[in-house]
Amino acid sequence: QVQLVESGGGLVQAGGFLRLSCAASGRTFSQYSMGWFRQAPGKEREFVAAISRSGGTRLYIDSMKGRFTISRDNGKNTVYLEMNSLEPQDTAVYYCAASQSIVPARTLHVYDYWGQGTQVTVSS
Fold first, then answer.
1. Order of strands across the sheet with 18-26?
2. Mean pLDDT across 81-85
3. How far apart are CA 31 and CA 48, in angstroms?
4. Which end of the chain, N or C, is less packed with Cβ atoms under 10 Å?
5. Per-residue pLDDT, 59
6. Residue 1 — very low, low, confident or very high, per pLDDT cuts 50/70/90?
7. Reduced to 3 states, what is the DSSP secondary structure of residue 84?
8. For position 62, what pLDDT does the model report?
């Protein structure tokens, strides 16, 4: 079992910056590739970014590439999502997830464990 707890969400103005954190406990963090997803009201949960076990491979949804950066610190059992130049359409609940997949993935069903999410609201 892996427990995931997100933090760092909040209210920010358009153009602003937020850094989300996801702390993991339980089994060895470095055995999991990690992902960030988000879900806006009335919409399906969508992929944001993913990172491999070592951090050497990172995936992003194209529309966020360059604005968002995923990273991890295996010594601290934490994965991060840095979000720059935030836009109102980035408003959503952001979830981190852990997968036993060797490679990072964009699809929800690959992920075995999920956090409860953290709200990000971007005002115009």
1. 2-7, 18-26, 78-83, 68-73
2. 97
3. 21
4. N
5. 95
6. confident
7. coil
8. 82
**Matching residue, tokens 């036993």:** 100
Are the C-beta atoms of residues 20 and 94 closer than 8 Å to each other?
A: yes
Q: How far is CA 108 from the centre of its chain?
A: 12
Interatomic CA distance for residues 8 and 103, integer angstroms: 26
DSSP string, 19-82: EEEEEEEES-GGGSEEEEEEE-TTS--EEEEEE-SSS--EEE-GGGBTTEEEEEETTTTEEEEE
- Residues 6 or more apart whose CB falls under 8 angstroms from that of 63 comprise none
User: pLDDT value at position 102?
Assistant: 85
Residue 99 backbone phi and psi in degrees, to 5:
-130, 140
What is the structure's pLDDT at 109?
Answer: 94
Question: Is the pLDDT at 64 greater than 90, yes or no?
Answer: no
On the 0-12 / 13-18 / 19+ scale of CB atoms within 10 A, 15 is exposed
